[in-house]
Amino acid sequence: MTVQLTKVQLFLLMFVMQTGFVYTSVQNLIIEHAHRDATVQFLVVAFIFFLQLLFFERVHQYFFLNSFTKALYLIYWTLYITIFVSYITYVLTSWVFPNTPTIVLIGIFLSVCLYASVSRPETAVNIGVVLIPMLFLFLIFMFLTVPSLNPTNLLPLFYDRSNTWFMGFVYSTYAFGGAETYIILRKYLFKNEKVSKKVITIYSIILTSFYLLAISFTLMYFALDEIKIVPEPILYILHSVEVTFVKRLDLFFVYIWLSWSLVTIVNYVLVMRLVYFEKKIKSPIMKQLVFFTLVGVTANLWIRFSLLEFFTNYLVYGTIFFTFLLPIIIIILNKVRGRTLSESEKSS
């Protein structure tokens, strides 16, 4: 399977995959542990992510996956998608469809994802464009909450450290999960396109600002003790906003976020297709049907047995390993061996 990307398409795919799942929930995990230092800790991790992208761009020719590392990433992405299908379903049953069986919601949601995923690769690449006006609407709605915010909640910094303070750094990495897809998608850029430091800097600033807005607003809206009992702080903030054209602004945003999450899954599946279907494989549509069926059944079981909180608390360690550590290990090993991506393609 082949696909060609422009720089805009590459970073749009990245942005959707790095925000689509965790944007409404990561704030309480960071603030619960980092307290008033949440914004500072997040900015530190954001700077590390920026350096990582610069590193990836400089040595991307040394990153290629053998059969073992392909299997590891496919298992990780399957687990990642399954956990957040469970989370999406939990949010829908909590906010919109409390009386609808979870298996029905999962079935409808994943059917749409399957349809988009088995279409031409260009569909998955370009589908994220429809989210751009939705995200601008979201930002406008967020700023409607400004009169209810308390800026003094951002201060003072560095005084309320606890035994779990360091975990603020750990959970901040959730916001940058999916960064490994940059170095996987990088080889699909048009041959004459180069990614400059300026482009990477602009993307990093946009992504960091988008998350920093949500973290800052959450800090200014809630007291620290309240954060622990608010699983989706952004939805609660929007719930408090009253506008004349929408009775429940939070529900309006839930539908936006649902579309956002759907596109995220489609984009992750595109990356998995590019990794798994590098060579022609029989019955790719059937394999994707089996994949989505497995994801749906597993996600429903996790909801039924209340395993979602466990996975969302500990998946972050998988994110750190597969997003930050494993790509660096792969690059270093291949560089020591003198093997580049072009050589591996020739050998295969």
UniProtKB/TrEMBL annotation:
Membrane topology summary: Multi-pass membrane protein
Domain of life: Bacteria
Predominant location: membrane
Locations listed in the record: Membrane
UniProt-listed Pfam families: Spore_permease
Keywords: Germination, Membrane, Transmembrane, Transmembrane helix, Transport
Transmembrane segments: 40-59, 71-90, 96-116, 123-144, 164-185, 205-224, 252-277, 289-308, 314-333
Record carries keyword rRNA-binding: no
PANTHER family to which the protein is assigned, alphabetical: SPORE GERMINATION PROTEIN A2
Family designation: Belongs to the amino acid-polyamine-organocation (APC) superfamily. Spore germination protein (SGP) (TC 2.A.3.9) family.
Name of the protein: GerAB/ArcD/ProY family transporter
Organism: Solibacillus faecavium
